[in-house]
């Protein structure tokens, strides 16, 4: 790894909760990535599926599995990912960011977190903490907040940002997981990919100004914001890797991005 003392940071496109019980190239790539990252001491997850006003973290000693969806098969609801909590990260986050973090003792991991962790770290051996997305923040403020979290990478903490490169349901082709992607989805995926390759954070912060392209790919901001976190965590020595790339249902780029 290029940055010896700096832990990689990862963005995953988590897609449908069904990915939790799938076995395919997508899950194999997650598994391989988990093998590369298995020596981290804790995981901080930021998922599209926990938006709050103000900052919150999970705060129970062991995190339950939050099945935050309906209408899926029973076997998906049977998946559990009980894991010890990395509670020691909470004061550290407060110290680094200067922000008050409210503690939620009831909340478990949502599917943006556990549907990925179940493939990355199936042994459940690494402690996890989930941090909410503060919806009071602008894109620029999310980026700045993420920058303040970068010292965690020097403490062997894996920061896992979970969202989706593209996230459009109105044009989705649920009948065909392997449908060819729409041009506007390919264009957006390329734009974000190039922003990372060229280390151009302002491209992501200003992406909403390309209103039509942004809005058709992200009718809501929740699945895009985790990309801002990964961009903010970047240091000048990072190499950018794409450990997985595929399309699902014609509108969803399942690209993962690793800073290493």
Topology record:
Elements: E1 9-13, H1 25-36, E2 42-52, E3 55-58, E4 62-63, H2 74-77, E5 83-84, H3 89-97, E6 101-104, H4 111-120, E7 127-134, H5 139-148, E8 157-163, H6 183-197, H7 201-205, H8 211-217, H9 225-232, E9 240-241, E10 247-248, E11 252-253, E12 257-259
Parallel strand pairs: 1-8, 2-7, 2-8, 3-6
Antiparallel strand pairs: 1-12, 4-5, 9-12, 10-11
Helix pairs in contact: 5-9, 6-8
Q: Could you characterize what this model shows?
A:
The structure is a single chain. With 260 residues, this protein is an alpha/beta fold. The protein has one domain (9-259): Protocatechuate 4,5-dioxygenase, Chain B (3-Layer(aba) Sandwich), CATH 3.40.830.10. Helix content is 31%, strand content 20%. It is built from 9 helices and 12 strands. The protein has helices at 25-36, 74-77, 89-97, 111-120, 139-148, 183-197, 201-205, 211-217, 225-232, and strands at 9-13, 42-52, 55-58, 62-63, 83-84, 101-104, 127-134, 157-163, 240-241, 247-248, 252-253, 257-259. The chain has a 6-stranded mixed sheet with strand order 7-2-8-1-12-9, sandwiched between helices. Strands 3-6 form a two-stranded parallel sheet. Helix 6 (183-197) crosses helix 8 (211-217). The longest helix is centred in the C-terminal third of the chain and has 15 residues, at 183-197.
């Amino acid at each position: 790894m290029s940055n010896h003392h700096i832990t990689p940071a990862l963005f995953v496109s988590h897609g449908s909760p069904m990915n939790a019980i799938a076995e395919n190239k997508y899950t194999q790539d997650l598994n391989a990535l988990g093998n590369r990252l298995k020596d981290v001491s804790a995981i901080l997850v930021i998922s599209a599926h926990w938006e709050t006003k103000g900052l919150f973290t999970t705060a129970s000693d062991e995190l339950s599995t939050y099945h935050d969806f309906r209408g899926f098969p029973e076997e998906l609801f049977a998946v559990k990912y009980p894991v010890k909590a990395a509670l020691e990260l909470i004061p550290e986050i407060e110290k680094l960011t200067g922000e008050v973090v409210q503690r939620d003792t009831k909340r478990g991991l949502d599917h943006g977190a556990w549907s990925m962790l179940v493939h990355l770290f199936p042994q459940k051996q690494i402690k996890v903490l989930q941090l909410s997305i503060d919806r009071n923040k602008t894109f620029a403020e999310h980026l700045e907040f993420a920058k303040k979290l970068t010292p965690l990478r020097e403490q062997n903490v894996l920061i896992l940002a979970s969202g989706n490169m593209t996230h459009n349901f109105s044009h989705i082709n649920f009948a065909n997981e392997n449908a060819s992607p729409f041009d506007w989805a390919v264009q957006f995926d390329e734009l974000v990919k190039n922003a990372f390759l060229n280390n151009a954070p302002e491209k992501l912060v200003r992406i909403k100004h390309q209103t039509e392209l942004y809005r058709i790919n992200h009718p809501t901001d929740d699945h895009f914001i985790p990309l801002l976190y990964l961009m903010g965590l970047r240091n000048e020595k990072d190499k950018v890797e794409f450990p997985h790339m595929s399309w699902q249902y014609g509108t969803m780029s399942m690209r993962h991005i690793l800073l290493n």
